[in-house]
Amino acid sequence: MRVLALLDGTLADPESPVVRVDDLGLLRGDGVFETVLVVDGRPRELAAHLDRLVASAAMLELPAPDRAAFDRAVGAVLDAWAGGRELVMRLVHTRGVEGGDGTPTGFVLGSEINPATLRHRADGIAAVTLERGFDEGLARRAPWLLLGAKSLSYAVNMAALREAERRGAADVLFTTSDGLVLEGPTSTVIAASDGILRTTPTALGILPGTTQAALFRAAERAGWVTKVESLRVADLRAADGVFLASSIRRITRVHTLDGEPLTDSAALHAELTALYESEY
Length: 280
Known about the structure:
Layout: E1 2-6, E2 11-12, H1 24-28, E3 31-39, E4 42-43, H2 46-59, H3 67-80, E5 86-94, E6 105-111, H4 115-123, E7 125-131, H5 138-141, H6 155-166, E8 171-175, E9 188-193, E10 196-199, H7 210-221, E11 225-228, H8 233-238, E12 241-246, E13 250-257, E14 260-261, H9 266-277
Parallel strand pairs: 7-8, 7-13, 10-11
Antiparallel strand pairs: 1-2, 1-6, 3-4, 3-5, 5-6, 9-10, 9-12, 12-13, 13-14
Helix pairs in contact: 7-9
């Protein structure tokens, strides 16, 4: 099932054309998006996702997204949804048509969650490390590369996932050319050791994780220490557990890295998942 809403709050047929062929989001990936999990009719971290949509748009020098309009479209999707208790909502904002008057294109699409995502949540995943092709200082030196923006230009991320599949894995942990851990193509990396949760700093040019932030809030209340600091692959191998946090997959454990089994973290995964769910 899919439900499509335009920013004026009206519903559109998801099987019919909505985006023009000369839209710059389609032609050049010149746009931004967010993916929001909805459970039992309640969007998770919607305000944080809208904040990130606005921040990404500013990095691309796009017209600012109309938050009230996106809220209206989200409400329309939720009101019309008649599928399962969980759905994924994609909020899309592009520069609009080439040579147009500058009016951006925006919409919200609700759809079912891929069954593979549910399997990954339950069973964990194998991942591989792949170099992202830049060093730790590039985001600061070259802001025009838009590192840390959630743009529609996801070709590299999708290519990395295909490479992971060729290597017999389901996901990727990107690294810098100087060996620091970054993020996954669609997730934030978390390492757990001795009551400490660690994740990598956004200064490296990665997205601030909404799911990671929710988990850290809950974990701190439960007595965990949380840190944002640089990690290397060796730190992941030595950890009690390695996890990928994302809106739709929630907290997913990595059981194998580059073909080598990691520490069994099934019990720890259950604990962290319960902490994350306690936020809602």
